Amino acid sequence: LADLPLLVPSHRAKEIKTKLGTLLQKPDSAIDFIILHPEKPEKLPKAQKPSPEEALQWRDSLEKLLQNPYGLASFRSFLRSEFSEENAEFWVACEDYKKTKSPEKMVEKAKKIYEEFIQTEAPKEVNIDHFTKAVTMKNLVEPSLSSFDMAQKRIFALMEKDSLPRFVRSEFYQELIK
């Protein structure tokens, strides 16, 4: 900001400084956080909406939730609202990876998953411990269908312990089980 007057006329610099100061202040109310153009929400598959009984099973089984297309979409939307969707995205990418037949495709997908979720400072870096990261990187020297298994299990456990209980308490889930 000290260099601002050199780049901008002084009256304009004061105006910018005032606006920046206003933006940096702590908001007085939640109204300041309203997003005028939110991202398009993920469309939930209409035809496959679960019965309340089926949705009730999700409380006790993250696996059942993730295997149900409607459940997965709703869980991902919930995680997106909490800014933690990378975990579900990583899990889905690993499931897709395990279905890969071609060794060339496997190498290509492994590289993409590593760059997107595993490497330090990755755009959607998942929270795994150093040991798991090291094992995963070692597995990627010669990619196999199980290269990401340990990391995927760690992320599954994290979602099961942390994200699933919050999802089950969410309004969206509560509406599904009515």
From TrEMBL:
Instruction: Indicate whether Cytoplasm appears among the record's keywords.
Output: yes
Q: Where in the cell is it found?
A: Cytoplasm; Membrane
Q: What does this protein do?
A: Inhibits signal transduction by increasing the GTPase activity of G protein alpha subunits thereby driving them into their inactive GDP-bound form. Binds to G(i)-alpha and G(o)-alpha, but not to G(s)-alpha.
A cellular component term (GO) from this record? Answer: cytoplasm
Looking at the record, the residues that make up the RGS domain are 61-177
Biological process terms in GO annotation: negative regulation of signal transduction
Per its UniProt entry, which superkingdom is the organism in?
Answer: Eukaryota
**Keywords tagged on the record:** Cytoplasm, Membrane, Signal transduction inhibitor
Looking up Pfam families in the UniProt record yields:
RGS (PF00615)
* Annotated source species: Hemiprocne comata
- Classification via InterPro entries: RGS, RGS_RGS5, RGS_sf, RGS_subdom1/3, RGS_subdomain_2
- What's the gene? Rgs5
Q: What is this protein called?
A: Regulator of G-protein signaling 5
Q: Which PANTHER family match?
A: REGULATOR OF G PROTEIN SIGNALING (PTHR10845), REGULATOR OF G-PROTEIN SIGNALING 5 (PTHR10845:SF42)
